[in-house]
Amino acid sequence: MSSRFRVTVRLRAWQRHALEDWGQRQERDYLAVATPGSGKTTFALTCALSHLSHRPHRRVIVVAPTRHLTGQWADAAARLGLQLEPDWSPRSGRLPPDAHGAVVTYQQVATAPTGIARAAPGAFAVCDEIHHAGADRSWGEALATAFADAERRLALSGTPFRSDPTPIPFVCYEDDEAVPDFCYGYAEALADGGVVRPVRFPRVDGHMEWRDGEGTSWEATFAEPLTHQRANQRLRTALSLDGDWLPTVLEAADAKLRAVRHDHPGAAGLVIARDQEHARGIATLLWQRCGRRATVAVSDDPTASQRIADFAGSDQAWLVAVRMVSEGVDIPRLRVGVFATTTTTELFFRQAVGRLVRWTPGLSEQTAWLYVPADPRLAAMADRIAQERRHQLSPRGSQEGGDGDESDAEAALAADRDAKSEDRAQLSLFTALSAVPLGEPADGSASPAPRGGERP
């Protein structure tokens, strides 16, 4: 296929600087870390265009986290004149002759690395959200096999990441921390203006009661220090569909969304749920308590990608998902979120925040809100992002301090890493007894919608 491109790509300042830096490097591998919503896709595709302009017969292969994102990458490429096939099967071993390349998932790479390897010699490879290759050792090995003979390998991530137990191919490490060749953070994006939105984090405390797997009853608020196992049980209790905490937070978030929609009529909300059953239950609560019919997007539904696409182009108010919308999905009208999952890693949390920060041209005020449990681990993560926001948005000379202690934050993160070893058998016997919210969430003071029907 011809690789003569006559397109003009308008780049942001960071994209221009990163493109220049990438072009000057002689190494095969390049890691760009750029905050969600800042335009990593456009940057990577511009690098691909530059590569093909000098090597017109080479191919481009993009690896994305999910099937939904393969279509999103293909659409973005098409707008720049690049034809990338999102439905190509690596098992065929040959790329379509009428396309510049293809988009595949990490799962496809893991199951058919040699098929991709046959198509990849001399190719320009893009690995989007490359930390996914560290999910399992076999995934990293498959990625290394698939692109061993690629001419250039561009890795992307929305946030810095660690090696954990499985080092990721094509990435350099220093003290177990991935070392990016180019980094563009949330604070820098806020300072540049017109790139990302500021995000606020209303936190909701509560009083939770539960019975653990051994039959022992417990009760605690989020303010009380607990072991990591008890903290996980407390969070799971707060998010129970049968308690009062979650419905109250959903009502507060919906009230905020209705207020936002006065000035941004197409604004929408996102709830990130614990699992698929939880997601469907949350959709029921949104209808019963707020009069909202929500779109539910879960991986078991073969129409989930189309549901997300339809939601993105509609004016429907709420989307409920588990992980399908946690990273990469481009829905700029999302302005309000509810973090209703028991996943408490910083990488996942920042990716969730990234769903709300995408800038919409033409709107004067674009603050976003993510409602979170007042769990100390989540509070520490929110504090760090809030400090980045205040550092860039406060008047010069402001001495406003942080909301959290760094040592507490590190302890919370360490506890979260330890929580991965929690006894699953104990969790299966766990019973949530009650969850009652304490106080009003900040920034959630608008009155709830009348029940019984859809509201603006």
CATH architectural category of the largest domain? 3-Layer(aba) Sandwich
Proportion of beta-strand residues: 15-25%
**Shape summary:** globular
Helical fraction: 25-40%
Determine the CATH topology of the largest domain.
Answer: Rossmann fold
Q: In terms of structural class, how would the helical and strand content be classed?
A: alpha/beta
Going by CATH, the homologous superfamily of the largest domain would be P-loop containing nucleotide triphosphate hydrolases
What is the name of the CATH class of the largest domain? Alpha Beta
Sheet with most strands: 9 strands, mixed
> Number of helical segments?
15
Count of distinct strands: 18
What is the average of the pLDDT values? 85
The low-confidence runs, each spanning 5 or more residues with pLDDT under 50, are 391-426, 443-455
Distance between the termini: 48 Å
Radius of gyration based on Cα positions = 22 Å
**What's the number of domains?**
2
Question: What's the structural blueprint in terms of helices and strands?
Answer:
Layout: H1 13-24, E1 29-34, H2 40-54, E2 60-64, H3 67-79, E3 84-85, E4 101-105, H4 106-111, H5 113-119, E5 124-127, H6 137-146, E6 152-157, E7 173-174, E8 177-178, E9 182-184, H7 186-192, E10 199-200, E11 203-211, E12 217-221, H8 228-238, H9 245-260, E13 268-273, H10 276-290, E14 295-297, H11 304-312, E15 318-321, E16 334-340, H12 346-354, E17 368-373, H13 376-393, H14 406-418, H15 424-428, E18 431-438
Parallel strand pairs: 1-6, 1-9, 2-4, 2-5, 3-4, 5-6, 10-17, 11-17, 13-15, 13-16, 14-15, 16-17
Antiparallel strand pairs: 7-8, 11-12, 11-18
Helix pairs in contact: 1-2, 5-6, 7-13, 9-10, 13-14
